[in-house]
Write a structure and sequence with these properties.
Length: about 220
C-alpha cells in the first residue's frame, strides 16, 4: 500500500518525507488556503520535496477552463496528478488529460457508480472520501470494499483506489485489508500508526536493563 500525505504544509511534508515512508502528497483548495501561500509556489515546493505523485486540484467547474488549469498544473512537474472533481465536466477533463498522458486524480467520490465512471474516464486515481461518509452515518469502508471488488473484476481498469478523508488508523488498516492501493492521510494519522503503549513500556524496560550492564555498543 502506498502512503500519501494529505496536507499543503511543506514543513510537515519535508519532515515526513525524511522517514522514507512517503510515496506522494495530496492537496485540495482548503488545505492550500490554510497555508496562506500562493498555490503554484506551494505545489512547486512540494514537487521538489517528493518524487511520487503530487495532487493539485483545479478550481474551475467548466470543462474548457478545467482543462486549461489542468494543463498548467501538469506543466509544473512530471509528478503532478491533476485533481478534478467527480462531475460530468471533471470526467470529460479527466479523459482528455489522460489521453495526453497526464495522471489524473478524480476527487469527491462517494459512490461505487462514480468510481466506475472515473475508471472509464482513464483516472490514475479515484479518491473515495471515507470520513465524510462516516460523518453522515454511512459506512465509508463499505464504499472502499465495493470499489476494490469492482475494479479487480476488470483488467482494463488500471485506476488505483486512493482512500481519502481518512480520520484514524482503523480507516487505513481496514483499507489495507481490502487491498486499496493508496491511503492519503493527515500527518497526525501517519504519526499515530507508530504508537503502541506496549512498544513504549517494552523499550523502557529493555533500556533500564541495558543501563545496569554498564555497556555501550559503540565503545565495545
Ligand atoms: C483528499 O484528497 C482530500 O484532500 C482529503 O482526504 C479530504 O479529507 P477531509 O474530509 O478530512 O477534508
Amino acid at each position: 500500500m502506498k502512503f500519501f500525505i494529505d496536507t499543503a504544509d511543506t514543513a510537515e511534508i519535508r519532515d515526513l518525507a525524511s522517514t522514507g515512508l512517503l510515496d506522494g502528497v495530496t492537496t485540495n483548495p482548503s488545505l492550500v488556503a490554510k497555508t496562506g501561500r500562493k498555490f503554484l509556489d506551494v505545489v512547486r515546493e512540494i514537487c521538489d520535496i517528493v518524487d511520487g505523485p503530487v495532487s493539485a486540484e483545479v478550481t474551475a467547474t467548466d470543462h474548457e477552463t478545467m482543462l486549461a488549469e489542468g494543463r498548467k498544473l501538469a506543466a509544473i512537474a512530471p509528478n503532478i496528478a491533476v485533481k478534478v472533481p467527480l462531475t460530468p465536466d471533471g470526467l470529460k477533463t479527466c479523459r482528455v488529460l489522460a489521453n495526453e498522458g497526464r495522471m489524473v486524480n478524480v476527487t469527491l467520490c462517494f459512490s461505487a457508480g462514480q468510481a466506475i465512471l472515473a475508471a472509464k474516464a482513464g483516472a490514475a486515481f479515484i479518491s473515495p472520501f471515507v470520513g465524510r461518509l462516516d460523518d453522515i452515518s454511512s459506512d465509508g469502508m463499505n464504499l472502499i470494499d465495493d470499489i476494490c471488488q469492482i475494479y479487480s473484476q476488470y483488467d482494463k481498469f488500471t485506476t488505483e483506489v486512493l482512500v481519502a478523508s481518512i480520520r484514524h488508523p482503523i480507516h487505513l488498516i481496514e483499507s489495507a485489508k481490502m487491498g486499496a492501493h493508496v491511503a492519503t492521510m493527515p500527518p497526525s494519522v501517519l504519526r499515530q500508526l507508530y504508537k503502541h503503549p506496549l512498544t513504549d513500556s517494552g523499550l523502557a524496560a529493555f533500556l533500564a536493563d541495558w543501563e545496569k550492564t554498564g555497556q555501550s555498543i559503540l565503545d565495545a
